[in-house]
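I am still getting used to C-alpha cells and would like to learn alongside you. To get us started, please write out a protein record for me. Once you have written the record down, we can walk along the chain together.
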Amino acid sequence: MTISLRRARTIIRKALEKGREMELKPLSVVVLDAGGHVQAFEREDGAAPGRFAIAHGKAYGAVMLGMAGSAQMARAEQQAYFMAAVNGVYGGQVVPVPGGVLLRDKKGGVIGAVGVTGDTSDNDAIAAMAGIEAVGLTGEV
C-alpha cells in the first residue's frame, strides 16, 4: 500500500485544523511516501520559510529509519554518535525529534511518514496524529 495524494492532502488539512483548534503557532506539514519522497506539503501563512526542511527532516528520519521521532530522540540522547552517523549517511536531512510520525497501514506496514513543525515538538506530533487518524491510518509518534 502507498499513501495517495488524496489521503496526504487530507492528513495535511486535518493536521492544520488541529493546530488552529489548539491555537498553535503556524504549522508546516509534509507527507512522505515509503521511499521518502514528498507526496504533499503545505505551510500556513505566517510560518517561517525554512520550516519545509524541518518538517521534511522529521518525516524523512522516521521513514528512512523505520523509527518515529520520539524513538529517534531517545536514541540520540543515548547514542549521539549513532544519530550523528545516520545524519551523515542521509546528508544531514534527519531531524530526530517528535513531530516525525511513522505512517502505517492497517496491517502495520510502513507506507510513509508525516512531519509537522511550527510549535513545540510534542504539539507538532499531536497535530500530525489528528491528520493521520482522520484518514483511518495508524501513526507511530
The radius of gyration is 13 Å. The helical segments are 5-21, 51-65, 69-78, 80-89, 121-134. The mean pLDDT is 97. Strands lie at 28-33, 38-43, 100-104, 110-117, 138-140.
